[in-house]
Write a structure and sequence with these properties.
8-stranded antiparallel sheet; globular; 12 strands; mainly beta
Length: 145
């Protein structure tokens, strides 16, 4: 799962409205504007707004390479988020999570690995975290850097 925050775009504070109903993540600084999930040769992408998740089905391209490791590339136009011209002020932050679902009562989010590493302590086994799991570290991209 890739969780993305795009500067200037109003998203949701967490993933509670994810259509699969078993993803509970939040971002400490910012919001969630885009979620991508990939598996084997499939993927789903959603624009995230304060009102919920909207599946992105048009204008999305993908490429998979199934060599030694499965690699995926996604191209999602910024116009989907109302951005018609990327400026030097545009900042995109992302976190990657090897995710599972949530516990039956929704209080534990299962996650096996993170990029970047997160300051989270499991509450159940070695990969069950208090839901929503708050992502405190993000990879940041800005055109001016």
């Amino acid at each position: 799962m890739v969780i993305v925050d795009i500067s200037g775009v109003e998203g949701a504070t967490n993933t509670a409205q994810h259509e699969w109903e078993n993803r509970m993540y939040a971002v400490e600084n910012g919001d969630i504007d885009l979620v991508i999930e990939a598996w084997d040769n499939g993927f789903e992408a959603w624009k995230v707004t304060p009102d919920g998740f909207v599946k992105i089905t048009d204008s999305v391209s993908k490429a998979f390479n199934a060599g030694e490791h499965i690699k995926a590339e996604f191209a999602i136009p910024l116009e989907i988020f109302g951005i018609t011209k990327a400026s030097t002020e545009l900042t995109v932050k992302a976190a990657f999570v090897l995710t599972g679902g949530t516990s039956d009562n929704g209080t534990v989010q299962w996650a096996a690995d993170f990029l970047p590493e997160q300051e989270a302590t499991p509450v159940s086994g070695d990969s069950g975290y208090q839901a929503p799991l708050v992502l405190k570290s993000m990879i940041t991209y800005s055109p001016e850097h």
